[in-house]
Amino acid sequence: MLTPWTRPLSTGIGRVGLLLALLALAACKREPEPVPGAPGEPVAAVEALADALRDGDLKRYAELSLPPAMHAQQKALWRQQVATKNPIDEEQAQRYAELMAQLTAPDAEAALWAKAEPRLAALEQELGPKWTLGVTMLSGFATTAISASETMSESEKGHATGVVTALADWAGDQAQFTDRERAKQAIGVAVRTARELDLPDVAAIEALDYDPMLDRAGVAFRGFKSVLSAYGIDADAALSQVQAEVIQIDGPRAVVRVRYPLLGKEVSFEQPMRQIDGGWYREDAIESLERLAAELGTAPTAPVAEAVTSDAAAPAVAPAN
Description:
321 residues
């Protein structure tokens, strides 16, 4: 998301062609119309989530994603998950520690730029016309990986695919990446963010409790947005222009279509929401917590109530096909 709506992401040219054909077919499908008279609460809930991301406040984002009782359970399961997970690969842990040491060294910016500048010059000379083809192939691989993901919800897949499509067109200009001033600015942001994080090794990360973890994640997320800004991608402007509308509602469940502009394109995806104890929350966050509880052998916290508001009590409305 832009993300916390989104997650990290081979095959041959034939699969890329098939993917593009499927995307073309999907684009021809008529979008569902907004539901007349639908309650505004699901829309307000989605807009609040976007505001939290714009502010880089991942703690507030997490609180808005789940009902209070479930959020409390997620905090409790965090420590259990850390204690029972597989140990981090030693090689990966060493690479992380080396990277953080480079980013937090007293002369980090100068040292990193000394390494980056000749690489940018080589990239500029070596790729040339091959750049566009490479970007097209990488975006195809990314979209295929998103589609095949077994951990992403359909909402997350739709959002991530929209972001990849917007970024692919923008990334077709090789100069976006080889511009020296942008690279220097991005290095400066990365160095400042690493110092603010103050997490020199994996052990420091594993020692964090849930709320401090979200605080540090917020630091990293704000740094990531600043790196994007260095390359001309204004994530905060995109998040401030989020538009949402209910396109399906059935009692305590609703589907909200979310739109926002990104790099001259419109990203659009559908976010399922669920009403619990009078509030509206991300259904994929609720399902993710239920899966985590099952994996850890803990009974999920039962919703207090799925109260149906008087506006939502209307007969179920299905989206247009």
